[in-house]
Amino acid sequence: MSLRETPANWQSNLGLMGLGLLAALPGNASAQTAPAAAPDTATQVTLPELNVGGTAPNPPIRTDIGNAPRLPTGVQDAPQSISVVPRALIDERGATSLREALRNVTGISLAAGEGGLSGDNLTLRGFSATNDFYIDGIRDSAPYTRDPFNVESIEVLKGPSAVMFGRGSTGGVINQTSRAPQARTFGEFTMSGMDPMGFRATTDINVNVGNVAVRLNAMAMHQDVARRNNVYNERWGVAPSITWGLGGDTQVTFSYLHQTENNIPDFGIPIIGNRVANVNVSNFYGLRNVDREQYVTDVMTARIQHRFTEGVNLSNTTRYGNYYRDVSATAPRIVGTATVNTPLANILVNRQAQLRAGLSTILENQTELRVQARTGPLEHNVVSGLEVGRESVQLRRWTATRPTASLVAPNYDQMPGYQDARSLTADTLTVANRIAVYAVDQIRIGQYFEVLGGVRFENYDASVTNRFVANANLSRDDNMWSWRGALVFKPVRGVRTYFAAGTSYNPSAESLALTTATSNLAPESNISYEFGASWEVNRNFEIRGALFQIDKENARTTDPTNATVTVLQGEQRVQGFEISASGAPIPSVPQWNVIAGYTYLNSEIVKSRNPAEVGRQMLNTPQNTATFWTTYDLPYGFTIGGGASYVDSRYANTANTVRVPSYTRYDATVAWNISQGLTARLNGLNLTDRKFYEGVYQGNITPGAGRTIIASLTARF
Predict the structure, then answer these.
(1) Per-residue confidence (pLDDT) for residue 696, from 0 to 100
(2) Do residues 485 and 501 lie in contact, with contact meaning Cβ atoms separated by under 8 Å?
(3) DSSP bridge pairs for 349
(4) Cα–Cα distance, 310 to 628 (Å, whole number)
(5) Which of 176, 182, 468, 478 has the most other CB atoms within 10 Å of its CB?
(6) Cβ distance 437 to 426 under 8 Å?
(7) How far is Cα 258 from Cα 237, in angstroms, rounded to an integer?
(8) What is the predicted pLDDT for the residue at 305?
(9) Which secondary structure element, helix H or strand E, spans residue 22, and what is its range?
(10) What is the reported pTM?
(11) What is the 3-state secondary structure (H, E, C) of 683-706?
(12) CA–CA separation, 600 and 1 (whole Å)
């Protein structure tokens, strides 16, 4: 079947392919058993005990296990593709950023910041997810580099999730579940040294007295980026939290996250003739004491939870976030006209100044009621909620003329003492108020069937005050309805199949920005179809797969002859499938653990006002992505592991004239449990020192980090 068939053909064939997939699943298992009761994601999460002594195997890592925020069931029972990156996997792979941790998830492509964007930026199933980050189910969309030091797990919910999360979420959402206070006392300290030069220190201390627990996570690091001259990342953070009422019907938790970053921003290497310039991959075009970026992130959360009776829980969460950023970066651009035949030594690079400073805030209150109940033969898992929030962004931009650089040999110390002569070009304040109500019910009907239905209403009212151009203020007020439905069939024990559909919306002010060209446009609408199945081969190993299609039905498109005209006459489509497996595949060999995944994305710009885009692939959307990671526990407390991550070629522009090649990155680890509570680990990232490109844009491409070695020592009590 061609993946470029019409939507009607695709949807009918989706069902036929689903029946084939179902027929291929094992049918000789014993009778269907009732699923476990849905976990209460609002209650306290209990961490598993870590076995670090002797030669006993480590617990198998399942990337389908855990709680999913806002959903009525756990990950295993959700009729949706969800990938979980647990803490153990983050540690095994030596991930020091959220972006590194997400290399374990297929269907994602990373990018770099540009045009006002900075910090974490990625696409998920072909659509931008820059504004779809969450912490414990509350939006965390401000730009900064997220560090996993206070993260227990990362959940990637794929496909439109607007019913539960609101605006955006076209390709999915990324949620970080924080490390919460526990009903036991423990501690963990890790020190790491890195090559090229770097260090990292983290601590995790939990103290429990009666029904009160206090937890403190902290981190400090400095890391030079391998293969990139003069580029480094430096940050520190602290995350205290306290919970009263552990184990009781009423529980109150206060938590705080502070993170400060001081980095050298990297906009990479310029494009010449639609190709990356053929220069040394270590070339950096910034200037000493000029290029820098600072982020200060403060997130404060208060949560009250009360259990009225078994299966009836109410929670109220208040979040205030304050995000400051100050960026002075260099975007390298070719001076004049150059082609691939122009001698490189004759080409100069314009150091285009990227100067901006901003302050983002969020104040949100969410009330959520969870009910597990039975009405006759039906068993209900209901989640309903009310959200009220206010977000703001104050952003200022400047321009400056910096000295040009040699393309072949840029000089970081070219002009000692140079300072930008800045000219203010923009000064805006955007404020968005929203209120939303939602309800979702997943109903178990007998032994073999479940049905899910949900609806959400959201009002999103945004206004922009332009303090640079008089009388240029803009506003937009949108009412958005979204829905989600699913049918689940469980033919035999350990096998679940489902068909799901849902919608999402992208208002013009989604990222807290409006222009005269977009302020009069209604939200973009999206609809998704997904057929999926899972097979629990044994209690420690599961295989999951899904076929899906996402349609953006009225995409914003700009007239190529008049950039001030934008209309909702575009259409974008992504069709694809994914398959993943995780855990210990052979019950008699529990010391062998495997995590693997593959995603195919066939993206297409179906309609556009720009004829050069029609029929082209979508921006930064690789057709194939794959990941594989395996570990094996050896005698005497040793563990070895390794794997690979593959990202296919992708385009840096919608006309598909700038293409970035595919790459495979290999990583490995060796760990030794020296004694009870003491572990040494050695990680090698990009072991072959493969040259590859990570951030893709029409004017410049950012190389990925070269070979990086991390040696760590962890002490636990």
Answers:
(1) 82
(2) yes
(3) 334, 405
(4) 41
(5) 176
(6) no
(7) 5
(8) 97
(9) helix 7-24
(10) 0.89
(11) EEECCCCCCCEEEECCCEEEECCC
(12) 14
In this structure, are residues 597 and 583 in contact, taking their beta carbons and an 8 Å threshold? no
Predicted confidence at residue 699, as pLDDT, reads 84
Of residues 173, 84, 163, the one with CA closest to residue 125: 173
Q: Are 64 and 76 in contact (CB under 8 A)?
A: yes
How many whole angstroms separate alpha carbon 122 and alpha carbon 129?
A: 6
Question: Structure tokens of 375?
Answer: 């009405």
Which of 690, 599, 594, 589 shows the shortest CA–CA distance to 643?
A: 594
* φ/ψ of residue 699, rounded to 5: -95, -20
Residues 6+ apart with CB under 8 A from 2: none
Contact partners, residue 629, CB within 8 Å, separation at least 6: 89, 92, 93, 104, 594, 595, 596, 641, 642, 643, 667
Backbone angles phi and psi of 346, in degrees to 5? -95, 0
At 508, is the secondary structure helix, strand, or coil?
coil
The CA dihedral of 443, 447, 449, 452, to the nearest 10 degrees, is: 20
User: What are the b/e assignments for 224-253, b being 16+ CB within 10 Å?
Assistant: bbbbbbbbbbbbbbbbbbbbbbbeeeebeb
DSSP 38-92: PP-TTSPPPPPPP--STTPPPPPP-TT-SB-TT-SSBGGG-SS-EEEEEHHHHHH
From its phi and psi, is residue 686 left (phi > 0), alpha (psi between -120 and 50) or beta? left
Cα distance from N-terminal residue to C-terminal residue, the chain: 57
Joined tokens for residue 400: 């400056």
C-alpha 242/C-alpha 265 separation (Å) is 35
Find the angle CA(575)-CA(579)-CA(585) to the nearest 5 degrees.
Answer: 180
Q: Sheet with 127-128: list strands edge to edge.
A: 108-110, 122-124, 127-128
- Burial class, 417, CB count within 10 angstroms (exposed 0-12 / middle 13-18 / buried 19+): exposed
Whole-number pLDDT of residue 29: 37
SS3 for 291-336 is CEEEEEEEEEEEEEEEEEECCEEEEEEEEEEEEEEEEEEEEEEECC
Classified as helix, coil or strand, 105 is coil
**What's the CA angle centered on 650, arms 649 and 656, to 5 degrees?**
125
| Cα separation, 454 vs 87, whole angstroms | 31
- Predicted pLDDT of residue 160: 85
Which residue, chain included where needed, has tokens 């020190």? 191
With a CB cutoff of 8 Å and minimum separation 6, the contacts of 23 are: none
Q: Please report where in the chains the tokens 């921003």 appear, as a residue.
A: 265
pLDDT 10s digits, 433-465: 999 999 999 999 999 999 999 999 999 999 999
Bridge partners of residue 628, in order along the sequence:
596, 644
Angle, CA of 97, 673 and 45, to the nearest 5°:
55
User: Hey, what domains does the chain have and what are their CATH numbers?
Assistant: 7-344+370-716 (2.40.170.20)
Please write the tens of the pLDDT for every residue from 537-584. 999 999 999 999 999 999 999 888 888 889 999 999 999 999 999 999
As a whole number of Å, the CA-based R_g of the chain is 25
Give dist(CA 50, CA 43) in Å, integer.
Answer: 22
The whole-angstrom separation of Cα 206 and Cα 92 is 22
State how far the Cα of 92 lies from the Cα of 684, in Å rounded to an integer: 11
Instruction: Render 572-605 in DSSP notation, one character per residue.
Output: EEEEEEEEEEEE-S-TT-TTEEEEEEEEEEEEEE
> In what helix (H) or strand (E) does residue 8 lie, and over which residues does it extend?
helix 7-24
For residues 9 and 2, give the distance between their C-alpha atoms in angstroms, rounded to a whole number: 10
